[in-house]
Amino acid sequence: MVFSNHVEYYAFKATMYEQIANYYKYTHPELYVTYYYKHFEYVQKLTNVLNHTKSPSIQISNSLTESSYIRVLHASPDFPPIDLFIDGIETFKMINYKNATQYAHLSPDHHSLDVYLTEDRSNPIISVILPVEPNVYYTVAAAGKNESLTLLPYIDNTFLPNNESKARFLHLTSELPALDLAVKDGDVVFGNISFSELSDYLPLSPMTVDLEVRISGTKIVVLSLPNLRFEANKIYHLILTGTTEGERSLEAIIIN
């Protein structure tokens, strides 16, 4: 879910916490009080924003320019370091497996992306055309195995209220079926995420939590993720990569 301004975000949070509070109202009164106060907090924030907006039609621009941004994630366990060329120009060099580059500026247009092995630039191992919209952040993931290598573009939402956090889950292990990301021995956080699918963002308060990746709809755990720390003012992308057999085993990598 992408929020274009504070009004949308605060309204979403207020509604979400109200629903959670109502869920616990008669079964766990202490949790009901906790979540109701969170609901009330975001109602107040929403009211403050609306009261300080003079125009009845709220229009908040995130950028005064038309520049967009791109970064590359190497998530293919079968490939050594790679280079990325944009429109024939070397843009990112020697991207190692499980690493992501920094963002680079990119103009809104249709751009050619060519991926080469760092050690062999005779021919690209994959080439695609990426349509780029204005004022958008993109993460392009190199994923899949051998001949099934693919470049997968995802749009990043960089909006984050002060002292908040948010996270989402990306499934990039082609040999596994749909997955759930869940609290250890508890509820599902992101459910039924198939290969190449990316979850919506989940707003979070700063916390430390034990998570686990399961085969969707089951209790079968394929990877445990203990003591994950979500800090304030950070955006987290939890990405499952690796293989079920071989040297590069299943791992969850985290990029911000």
From TrEMBL:
InterPro entries: DUF4397 (IPR025510). Residues 68-181 form the DUF4397 domain. This is DUF4397 domain-containing protein. It comes from Gottfriedia endophytica.
